[in-house]
Write a structure and sequence with these properties.
The protein folds into 2 domains: about 30 residues, no CATH class; about 60 residues, no CATH class. The N and C termini lie far apart (about 50 Å). The chain is α+β, with helices and mostly antiparallel strands. A hairpin with a 2-residue loop joins strand 2 and strand 3.
């Protein structure tokens, strides 16, 4: 059996078998689910996964380059769903040039 796929859910944590793949759904807070399925949610989760100590100017400049102006606008609108330190990073990413 292959494993390794994980996702977040506002339901209970559980394992789901999909053919030969096993998906591990981990319970999370409604706050973290608020941006699920949007670019802002992906960026917030990626920054949280990297951790405060590993988010540097290179990470910020890479995201600024790769995200569209519309994506950056969404980041700015959804700052309230991010932890404070992530919100500070999102402001740097979304800032006008």
């Amino acid at each position: 059996m292959l494993t390794g796929h994980a996702g977040l859910t506002d339901g209970r944590s559980r394992r789901v078998q999909l053919g030969r793949q096993q998906v591990i759904l981990k319970h999370t807070t409604p706050r973290q689910m608020a941006t699920a399925g949007r670019i802002s949610g992906t960026v917030i989760q990626a920054l949280r996964w990297l951790g405060r100590d590993h988010v540097n100017d290179n990470v910020v400049s890479t995201l600024r380059r790769r995200l569209s102006d519309a994506d950056k606008g969404q980041l700015h609108r959804e700052l309230r769903w991010a932890p404070t330190w992530v919100g500070d990073v999102l402001r740097r990413i979304a800032a006008p040039r």
